[in-house]
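Re: [help] complex structure
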Amino acid sequence: MLYLKLAWRNIWRNRKRTWITASSIGFAVFFASFMQSMQLGSYQRMIDNSVRFYTGHLAIHQSDYWEEKILDNGFAHKSLMDLDIDQTKLDVGAPRLTSFALASFKDKTKGVLINGVDPALEADLTYLDNKIKSGTYMTGKGVLIGGGLSEYLKVGVGDTIVFISQGYHGVNAAGKYLVEGLLSFPVPELEQSAVYLPLPLAQDFFGAEEIITSYSMLVKDPKEINQLQVNLDEMTQGSELSIMNWEEMMPELIQGIELDYYGGLIMIYILYVVIGFGIFGTFLMMTKERTYEFGILVSIGMKKRQIQYMVALEILALAFFGVMLGLAASFPLTVYFFNNPIEFTGEAAKAYESFGYEPIIPFSLDPVVFYSQGIAILLISAFLGIYPMLAIKQLKIIKALKE
Amino acid sequence: MNVIEATHLVKTYNPDTIPVKAVNDISLEIKEGEFTAIVGPSGSGKTTLLNMVGGLDTPTEGNVIVNGVEINQLSPSELTDFRMHNIGFVFQSYNLIPVMTAKENIEFIMLLQKADKKHRDERADDLMEKMGISETSRRRPAELSGGQQQRVAVARALASKPKFILADEPTANLDSQSTESLLDIMAKMNAEENVTFIFSTHDQRVIDKAKRVITIVDGKIASDETK
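Output below.
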């Protein structure tokens, strides 16, 4: 308690310097936590959007399907019944039968991606019903096609479109379907090639009765994804099925996030280096101007390690004070922006929307944003504190008393 | 009984370049209860001698025995402990801990000695009363006059009940009145409580009060007079 009291009082011996140092630490913590909250918030939104866009958090496939996405690598829908999937942890699980076909209307033909889906479950998973730009959502009798595809084929709602493909195990697949609605996608590839039809119709078209190619799941609490994957992995041991998570299915998304994250981290490191020099300057002054005082303390019987302990407490108390200042400034602001994300307007908004993202900058309140900055500053201070510790250890009483 | 026995003390600075013997073969004994002034011109070796006797500096040659312990044989950590329990220091510029009140400064050394709170309180109050600074107990050094600070410094030196007190020019920064007052207090502590004081000084008033005066010239004892 004596040391803590001494440390606290010593910090305030030079109020101006303490405020300047604490403020610079506070600014670093404020800036770093605010930026990281923005980064993590954006990544989380990007991930949410991406998994909602198609893959879900987890997907069950036949083991070879991801390497070779062909119908013959599908699996029996009923085999999911053998898995004891904990539905209480799922927001939604949606089966799909996906393959390629040629779509034809009058004299136009184009390659398309056929998605046989459960209309209700797909709407829950990917909000497909919200992407209807004309016509109606699937009623069970017809198909939905991308807006770009409809323009290319010059086919509209109420027209009949023909699909030709190779079906399950090499059978011929051909059928004609009523176009019930047109979809609008932000991604040009889907806009030009996506076709959705009810799962039974797709299975019938491909001659793949009861066959699906994937079962996509959206997990209620993303923190449980890994555990759920482990459980499912155990259940599918020895079967033809395998489980993939969204990170495995979208490695490019992870890479993009990592690239951006490390870019931000470099900025924060540069900031820390600049602030570190400021902190070191303070520690240097604290040590130099008190050499005589340390000499006196050793003379009257205080051991060097006791002085080191006192100075270490001063250093940590100063860093802690600065960290608290920074967090006191950043936390309320981050909470505000968490509840009221920054909204883009104009061209920037359009650019965001074209990638299928909401035109906002969301913020994260993940505790790691705050404590990681605090820990980083305390570690930097502890590292820089090595200098005063060494200076005290090497203190020569007589030399110190002559300072 | 001797509290200090110094034998053939030599302190040589710059031994490898231009050797300077600040203390050149000094031997002396200080008995318990002495009130001794070490005098001499600037650069004569007074402070160096005091530093070696106080265990702050190590002699190039010779031994210092304090209360039966050869202090040059102690490790730095043992020496620090030894100083805390056996030697009180009073410096020219007071050297109180600026962030502590007068009473906390006096208690500080007892805290290092791990004395209990009751004992610390009683001892600090008693010393402050004897020094005539009770009313300053809650003030920090910056709020005290030079004379008051030096009295707090003497009280701090006495707090640990040392075997002797080394005072390096304790009156150099004090006015006449503060000097007289401080000397009276130290003389009283010496007379009533048999506290051993050793001063290094130029101050004639201190020399006049001293019972023994050792004069050092060029690192050697030129005279040693007991009044």
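Chain B has a mean pLDDT of 90.
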